Amino acid sequence: MMADASNTSVVIGPLKLIDYTRKEKRLVMLMCTGEGDWCSAPGGCRIRVFKCPAAAPFGKETSDKIKPSLLLHDYVITPATAVNVEKIKRNHGKVKLVVTFRVNENDVLGTSGYEELVFKDQSKATTSHVAELESFLFQGPYEDMRQFNVEISPHQIIPEGPARFNIFRTHISVVKRFTTERQKENSMEKVLKTVRKGKIQRLPLVVRLANLRSYSSLPVGFRFDTKQRKTYFFKCCSCKDGEDMNAQIKLAMGSQPSIRSVPPKRLNPPKPPPDKPGPTEPTYVNEWEARRCEEDIHGGIKLNVGVFAAKPQPGQPWILYVCIGRQGASLQDVKQCFPGREMVCPSRVFQVVSDLSINTELPEGWSTDNVVKEVPKDQFSVLEDPFIHEICIQHRNHGKKQFHGRIYIRQGLSETLRITLNVITNFTLYERVGRKRNEPLYDLVPRDRPVSSGDSSPAWLRLFSERKKLWDSLDIPNLFGDDWRLFAEKIGLDYQAIVTIENHSHEHGTSPTELVLREWERGRTAVPVSDEALVQILHDMGRPDVIQDMALQVPRLEDFRVEATTPNTIHVTWTPASDDITHYVIEIKPSGSGCAPWSSHHRQGNCRSLVFRDLRPDTEYDLRIQPSIQRVNGEWTNITAKTDVACTEL
């Protein structure tokens, strides 16, 4: 064991050493020394490896009797170079200890190499020398190490599979996990595995915290990006491990001033003057804004994204195909790429402005190995055929019949710049027997079935004129895919219901939106019917026109007044009628200027005043303000104000 004195050494052994780097096996003795004059780093240790003579294993030798001529290696391990310590227990009963550390503390990219040493006891003696060595290391450079079992997701530059994620004060390390048991791969998974082109970086992977560009905790694991523009994703083996790992990461990174979390948050940002606000990072309050469909961004690529799948077979893997193609491609042309499969998630348009990550979130009872997929933006710049990402879903718990999964497509590192694809189905539909071949699996609600909600339902559901406004707006196929199909997905209808509604509408000439509303108001969807739910769904779809036509949201102001004037400024203030207003447009121009353009100023929803500067003295101006809730605009409010007369110096 380690002695209290800094310069006192302890001898541990004999031990069998397996050196994979040099491909040799030896019987050795270890002389272990704690921190002292030879090492300025606190918590470090020195391990000297001596060859054990064949004639005398000197199990009871002391440090002063070990011959220097038998020295094989002299290692120094500090908390900054420590990588991993793992105990392995095999079937034969002997315990192995794997010790991994870096050769050079300043090696950021891992080019200097690592030492990976495996020790095991020579015999089943009463005293375990492996346990002594483990205790010595955990009292020294590995004292602050926190270990977690993770799964490395496929399609990365490091090998996929089980791994050990270690968190230190100055760095993190990822090593292969030795104690995992081999599991039989499903034959379907072997077929679906994608072969990644390019060079695979071997483990261990060590990243200094100062070298991280950003990090983010995800619902299924942890993701970080380095300053070398490399992204890594790790799936936690349990929810508790995920919470603990994210807590340890945030604790370790809290002492690193150069690292930012995602989304970035500025502590105590400087307050700009009310009339000249400083630049802020854009936030996207709904999915439509995150898709950025109607923007013309330099370098942006407008694409369509949807999800196809074959009919599920209970107890069998279900394969989802995330299809990303050029905008303007017809649905029939895309379906030709997926014979015998249905679109389980309606297509929609989004604009790619940076690299994509496709992330999967599954309900309890389901699992997949295709957790995350990184796709460079350059891959879409010359896209001719649709890009297809396959996700194989396993049905672990056959008692779980209702499936509601989400596929997130995120751009770059922004938490708000992402879209959500909902895949909903009920596996009990496919277990029903006695059906005819062309008979639909989903039964629509009969029109004459009464609505149980009665007068408590929203007014727009009880008034025919309001329902018809929805028909007229959502029945027409939309360029961006924001029609009744997307509306049905947002309220949580099974994709078989969407297929049945479409067929029923063509056969009977019924409005498909009306059929969707019948399912919604009778409680057959995942989202309960309400005014708030309809407004949020229409915002996510990018249909503020429907919100305004049906007057579901009306941005209003209580007052708009002039607070003060000077010869060159006019100070105006206003009070909103509600707290959900997201932004304002305030405009000004000289009175009587006819068709002269307005000078516009944009302010966020938390702003309540504005100072117009550089105005002409003794001049009357027209002012107006328009409040908005996301993309729903309110009425203009107009006032007039006159600047003061300039003072004349005597």
Automatic annotation (TrEMBL):
Q: Locate the compositionally biased regions of type Pro residues.
A: 266-280
Residues in Fibronectin type-III domain copies: 556-648
Coiled-coil positions? none
| CDD domains in alphabetical order | FN3
Q: Which Pfam families match?
A: Death (PF00531), fn3 (PF00041)
Gene Ontology terms describing biological process: signal transduction
Instruction: Give the start-end ranges of region Disordered.
Output: 254-283
Residue ranges of every copy of the Death domain listed in the record: 481-554
Where exactly are the transmembrane stretches of this chain?
Answer: none
* Protein name as annotated: Uncharacterized protein LOC109478541
The uppermost taxa in this organism's lineage are: Eukaryota, Metazoa, Chordata, Cephalochordata, Leptocardii
Q: Which gene encodes it?
A: LOC109478541
